Amino acid sequence: MPELPEVETVMRGLAARLEGRVIARAALARGDLRRLIPPGFAEALTGARVTGFRRRGKYILMRLSVGQSVLIHLGMSGRMAIHSPLEPPPDPAKHEHLVMITAEGWRIGFIDPRRFGLLDLIPTANEDAHPLLRDMGPEPLDAAFDAKALSLALTGRRTPIKAALLDQRIVAGLGNIYVSEALFRAGISPRRLACTIPGARAARLIPEIKATLTEAIAAGGSSLRDYVQPDGELGYFQHAWKVYGREGEACERCPGPSACPGIQRMVQAGRSTFFCPRHQR
After folding, report:
1. String of b and e for 31-66 (b: at least 16 CB within 10 Å)?
2. 32 pairs with which residues across the strands?
3. 96-100, 108-112, 204-208, 219-223: which has the minimum mean pLDDT?
4. In the predicted model, what is the mean pLDDT of residues 61-69?
5. Are residues 163 and 263 in the same domain?
6. Which of 3, 152, 233, 235 is the S-S candidate for 220 at Cβ 3.0 to 4.6 Å?
7. Mind telling me the catalytic residues?
8. Are 37 and 65 part of one and the same domain?
9. Which pLDDT score is estimated for 122?
10. Pairing between β-strand 264-268 and β-strand 118-123 as defined by DSSP bridges
11. Range of the domain at 191
12. pLDDT of 113-153, one tens digit each?
């Protein structure tokens, strides 16, 4: 599933082509994905000007001049495909569920083979009251997400820190890849109970979460399975992974094979966790 850096990259790609433009035509190929798409969805987009974008966790909000926001979730395999007015019209893609065409001829398609994605239409003024958004924690790149806030959120929690950071009520948008990477950078074991993190460990972890996400966004995210940027390019942060997907390889923080068992993989809450047992305590 695309995580925060991938969703941020997609949102920026959409904003570059859609912000300030009028959607001359919108069309749906079906009435549902993971959930039902509201009646009148395509009609609400047609003729509206796109006034801005916002990301909340792993969701994209496209704001319209008619006072409505389109809520987009890419699901497991969803992607946005952008085609220039100068390109020949593309053949309709298989599994393309939404098409938007601007007055200038830009064509944006939402493609989701597994249909775990989501499209909704909500009043812009009430975005944060939407059931999928209202209980979310702070954005990890916001200044308000600091050691004090994280310490408060983790106090008394006896789940492993890896699982706690994946809880969208504690912090929004973090996923499996970037939690594994940030914990490695901070030298914190994914097995460690969340209630032991407040204080010095939280102060160590916060800047590593922010740095990991910032670097991944700059790299266009990590291309894994279906993810590509809206212009069709691959992200390349996967080449900078320090532990994720590197089971059995040497840890860059350890002195050598004789002192380090190498990067290990374990399953937590049904998800793969990669870590170095020597470096991460």
Report:
1. eebbeebeeebbebbeebbbbebebbbbbbbbbbee
2. 36
3. 219-223
4. 98
5. yes
6. 235
7. 2-3, 58, 271
8. yes
9. 97
10. unpaired
11. 147-275
12. 999 999 999 999 999 999 999 999 999 999 999 999 999 99
